[in-house]
Write a structure and sequence with these properties.
This protein has a single domain, classed as Arc Repressor Mutant, subunit A (Orthogonal Bundle), CATH 1.10.10.10. 14% of the residues are buried. The longest helix is centred in the last third of the chain and has 18 residues. By secondary structure, it is an alpha+beta fold. The N and C termini lie far apart (35 Å). The protein is built from five helices and three strands. A three-stranded antiparallel sheet has the order 1-3-2.
Length: 106
């Protein structure tokens, strides 16, 4: 495994470092959504969103419920919601830009 990390930690941080998956998590923190709603909100192809939802489901970052023929996805508020709140708090309190990070070259 890379740099001595356990497989679970590696998979966790790999999921969290993917921009599409982070965008999906942010949208699902706002409200539960279907794959088509997510694709529209993110301006992404439905197949790309579906692929990323599968990865998030594998790690239980999100849950799904059936509503008729649709699957509605929700963020795992207990763990991922709490984690994102901790990250926001850290950024607000400790980041030199007060949580408003900038990419290099901006």
């Amino acid at each position: 495994m890379k740099r001595g990390l356990s497989e679970a930690c590696y998979k966790f941080f790999s999921n969290m470092s993917n921009p599409t998956r982070l965008a999906v998590l942010e949208k699902l923190m706002e409200k539960p959504m279907s794959v088509n709603e997510l694709a529209d909100a993110l301006k992404q192809e439905q197949s790309m969103v579906s692929h990323n939802l599968k990865q998030l489901l594998e790690c239980n970052f999100i849950t799904q419920q059936r509503r008729g023929k649709q699957r509605i996805y929700s963020a795992n508020q207990e763990t991922i919601g709490a984690l994102l709140k901790i990250l926001d708090n850290h950024a607000q309190k400790y980041c030199p830009t007060g949580g408003k990070c900038h990419l290099r070259g901006d």
